[in-house]
Amino acid sequence: MASNTTKEMLVDLSPVIKVYKDGTVERLLGSPHVPPSPEDAATGVSSKDINISPVVQARLYLPKLTDPHQKLSVLVYYHFGGFCGESAFSFLDQRYMNILGAESKALIVSVEYRLAPEHPLPVAYEDSWTALQWVASHVIEKPGMQKEQWLTEHADFGKIYVGGDSAGGNIVHNILLRAGAEPLPGDVKILGGFLSHPYFWGSKPIESETIEEIEQNFLSKFWLFVYPSAPGGIDNPMINPFVDDAPSLSGLGCKRLLVCLAEKDPLTSRGIIYVESLKKSGWNGEVEVVEVEGEDHCFHIFDPEKDKAKDLIKRLASFIS
After folding, report:
1. What's the rounded Cα separation, in Å, for the pair 140 and 18?
2. N or C end of the chain, less CB within 10 A?
3. Distance between CA 47 and CA 49 in Å, rounded?
4. Mean pLDDT, range 72-82, rounded to an integer
5. Are residues 23 and 37 in the same domain?
6. Same structural domain for residues 19 and 47?
7. pLDDT for 190-212, tens place per residue?
8. d(Cα 290, Cα 238) in Å, to the nearest integer?
9. Does 20 share its domain with 114?
10. Rounded CA gap, 101 and 40, in Å?
11. Are residue 262 and residue 152 in the same domain, yes or no?
12. Burial class of residue 71 in the structure, from the number of CB atoms within 10 Å of its CB (0-12 exposed, 13-18 middle, 19+ buried)
């Protein structure tokens, strides 16, 4: 913005975000917010916005129904954006959710968690858990309890999934660990989760990396920006699930997991280690991996019309159907 050219910079994490000493936050990436649609012209999916709590919102997506009493799988989705950008109300997220909802015939709850730096981590994790609890609470009968009609009429609470891309994939990992240790309302269980291009990092170099490269890497600086008080810094278990004091992956609270990776994504190497570690952990579940050749981070969100993006979205849809 031209108005910020003379301001004194506090944090410069271009091309994603800048923070000025007067408190101004300039988000450089991201798509504009768009309203929900009673019926998307391209997919027939309906969407609406709801308040989950005074500080947590969501956009709900309902695919076109062949039966007014049809019960659907439920996906609680956490968007990408590095914990500091994008939105459940953005153009990119809405386009993606419309396509995924139409392909999967699932009811989607896309969570609008609060963003850093105004709300540094672990706020997003808490908001994400609040949203999942809210979904699960619809199985409980309490006098005067307000419930969302789409969920009460169409949700199959035996088929609850969580999913996310990039930072959202990181959220899914941490949500699943919490769900494995802490019961949800009504003892609702998560059937499965997908982690697409998940944001994991750490101080230990892998493959051809050096310690100097890790320390100077944008992803290291980024984590410290969104979670400045993180115990252990970039070796906090929430970003580095491979450190000695991280909770065992055997505690993931679901039975099925899909991990999606992209060949050119710098996060892919740690995604592979995540899958290998999960298989060795003793986790009592089934994990599947999809790695797309020749593609980069979140390519399917930015360009969903390309063939490889369509294939990946179909794979995600099949998983949550």
Report:
1. 44
2. N
3. 7
4. 98
5. no
6. no
7. 999 999 999 999 999 887 778 88
8. 23
9. no
10. 11
11. yes
12. middle
Which residues does residue 59 pair with via DSSP β-bridges, in sequence order?
49, 110
Domain carrying residue 5: 1-30
**Tokens read off for 276:** 């290998």
Looking at the fold, whether 120 and 260 belong to one and the same domain comes out as: yes
Residue ranges of E strands in 155-301 = 155-165, 190-196, 256-262, 286-292
Number of domains observed in the structure of the chain: 2
* Tens of pLDDT, residues 224-235: 999 999 999 999
DSSP class of residue 83?
T
In 3-state terms, what secondary structure has residue 18? strand
Integer Cα distance of 222 and 137 in angstroms: 34
**pLDDT tens for residues 286-307?**
999 999 999 999 999 999 999 9
Q: Are residues 38 and 109 in the same domain?
A: yes
Rounded to the nearest angstrom, the gap between the alpha carbon of residue 225 and the centroid of all alpha carbons in its chain is: 19
Q: Are residues 91 and 20 in the same domain?
A: no
Active site residues: 166, 265
- The residue assigned the tokens 């769900």 is 179
